[in-house]
């Protein structure tokens, strides 16, 4: 079974710091990688997606993809208390139209 | 941006009854929609893929006769939980792939079966 692995956390960082969230995946042929933020009781919100090796930046967020290591990460700069949420990594596996989700990492940003 | 509208947001029903959840793509056509279920403190688990004009594709272990999916138009998919039981209580979320390649989620439906 194809898997997406995340550390459940909680990851605690002080306000203003950089939060680093990591994700590994088992399907070497995966081509699309997504990061979602989910607040308690709410639906996931797309932060960004990445297809190519390297970094992709969008505001305070940077996604990093390393296909050789089957590793994707999300960096959040200048973390704010409002960033406190569960961050879900999702992968589109080969031969499958839906996303496969990791279990999520809970981030706590301390004021 | 792409919007997926999901209703109802919250429903409480008696054991043995059926509940219908609607998912609409508001500003784009979605030939495929996805239905997920999320139990407390767990991740999203794909239940089925809804295909416009054809039968849904169910994941292993999901009972197709219990979770009825209808995708009658390019903008509407419905999930009906039939003969609901307390163990069906969960957060149900639909998703569709938008024009930009991202997967947009509905706001979710909190189902409680009493």
Can you describe this structure?
With 111 residues, chain A is mostly beta strands. Chain A is built from no helices and eleven strands. Chain A has strands spanning 4-5, 11-14, 19-25, 32-38, 45-50, 54-58, 61-66, 71-76, 85-92, 99-101, 105-110. In chain A, the strands form two sheets. In chain A, strands 2, 4, 5, 9, 10 and 11 form a six-stranded mixed sheet that branches. Chain A has a five-stranded antiparallel sheet with strand order 1-3-8-7-6, with no helix packed on it. The termini of chain A are far apart. The mean pLDDT of chain A is 94. Chain B has 114 residues and is mostly beta strands. Helices cover 0% and strands 53% of the residues of chain B. Chain B is built from no helices and eleven strands. Chain B has strands at residues 4-7, 10-13, 19-25, 32-38, 45-51, 57-58, 67-73, 76-81, 90-97, 103-105, 109-113. In chain B, strands 2, 4, 5, 6, 9, 10 and 11 form a seven-stranded mixed sheet that branches. In chain B, strands 1-3-8-7 form a four-stranded antiparallel sheet, with no helix packed on it. Chain B is globular and about 40 Å long. Chain B starts with a strand and ends with a strand. The A-B interface holds A 32, 34, 36, 41-46, 49, 88, 90, 97-104 and B 6, 32, 34, 36, 42-46, 49, 91, 93, 95, 97, 101-108, 110.
